[in-house]
Design a protein that fits this description.
The chain is built from 9 helices and 14 strands. The protein has helices spanning 37-46, 61-73, 114-117, 137-144, 179-186, 191-198, 240-253, 258-272, 285-295, and strands at 2-3, 6-13, 29-36, 53-54, 56-58, 82-84, 91-97, 100-106, 126-131, 148-153, 174-175, 204-208, 214-218, 224-227. The longest helix is centred in the last third of the chain and has 15 residues, at 258-272.
Length: 334
């Protein structure tokens, strides 16, 4: 079960440089897709996990588009979501430059809280929560009912990185910050130190490092895993961390080892950056199988951790997934 904000994402790629004041830069690529928590919802659903989302949607064209894509195209359960007249859908413009991205976002607080949408929450095996200084009661209820709690945390626009934020993680099972967030909140010098400090609060910590892979530690078993990034042609890194999170959730629910979970999540994220946006860039099983068929026989040390895919991936009959288009609301031919 997920809760959070759904944005309409508009993504520009192929920019020679970020626009400077008083100038205009043309992009060679453009994509549109649902974003925000929709990134995680779609990525989970494409891995064939039954996925529910509680979110507010505007009664506008952007809201129509995001609702239709999530509910009808990607089969995300929106039973606990609601539409609101007079509240416009949040919007993010993402600009991909030199394997990174910058974003401009506009939106207003949702007219309803997650606790109001999820009272009581449905029975679920796992919840993924974007942690902030506000504590959602539905999450604690789900935990008492046996759900695993996964968490990430967002960029702090104040850059104060309040350590008290970490107090909100008490009771969570897995925490997946990126490298900047991990070292900033812990005041550590490097990712490994930060991960081990965080593991004193949350049993399993996975720190993502963008194109450089991820480092994970399990405080319960003492296991540590350091997985390098995969060499792929990156188009747009928007939402890659969310897609990574979906892969790790899948592996956890499947009972895999820490190493297999991190490798699988790393692969999901690597395949996502080859397409526009965060949600519709997420791979399906057909994409994962095609990658492994192409590379699995290579004698490459960086691929040896992916051998478990031989017994996992479909051999035939998998469905392809849809990608982000340059516009929304295309009308059919009359």
């Amino acid at each position: 079960m997920l809760s959070g904000t759904v944005f309409l994402d508009i993504i520009f790629t192929g920019l020679p440089q970020a626009p400077a004041a008083g100038t205009e830069v043309w992009a060679s690529g453009l994509g549109s897709s649902p974003g925000g928590v929709a990134n995680l919802a779609v990525a989970l659903s494409r891995l064939r996990l039954r996925t529910g989302l509680a979110a507010a949607f505007g009664e506008d064209v952007y809201g129509d588009f995001c609702w239709d894509v999530l509910a009808n195209q990607e089969h995300v359960d929106l039973t606990y979501s609601r539409r609101f007249y007079g509240w416009h859908s949040p919007l993010t413009v993402s600009m991909a430059v030199n394997r990174d991205r910058s974003m401009v976002t506009h939106g207003h607080p949702a007219p309803i809280t997650a606790d109001e949408l999820l009272t009581p929450p449905p029975s679920t095996r796992a919840c993924f929560v974007h942690v902030d200084l506000h504590e959602d009661q539905w999450v604690r209820t789900a935990k008492r009912d046996g759900a695993l709690l996964f968490a990430d945390v967002g960029w702090d626009p104040t850059e104060r990185w309040e350590p008290r934020m970490l107090q909100q993680l008490a009771g969570y099972d897995v925490f997946m910050p990126n490298a900047v967030e991990a070292v900033s909140y812990t005041r550590c010098d490097d990712v490994k130190q930060a991960a081990n400090a965080l593991a004193e609060v949350v049993p399993v910590v996975v720190v993502t490092r963008g194109g450089h892979g991820a480092y994970a530690v399990d405080a319960g078993t003492g296991e540590e895993v350091d997985v390098p990034g995969l060499n792929v042609a990156a188009l747009d890194p928007t939402g890659a961390g969310d897609v990574f999170g979906a892969g790790f959730v899948y592996g956890t629910l499947a009972g895999w080892s820490l190493s297999d979970r991190v490798h699988f999540a790393n692969l999901c994220a690597a395949l996502s950056v080859q397409h526009f946006g965060g949600s519709l860039s997420a791979p399906g099983w057909c994409d994962l199988a095609a990658w492994w068929r192409h590379l699995g026989r290579r004698d490459d040390e960086n691929l040896r951790g992916y051998g478990f895919l031989n017994d996992l991936l479909p051999q035939h009959g998998c469905a392809t997934v849809r990608r982000a288009s340059a516009t929304i609301g295309l009308r059919g031919v009359p």
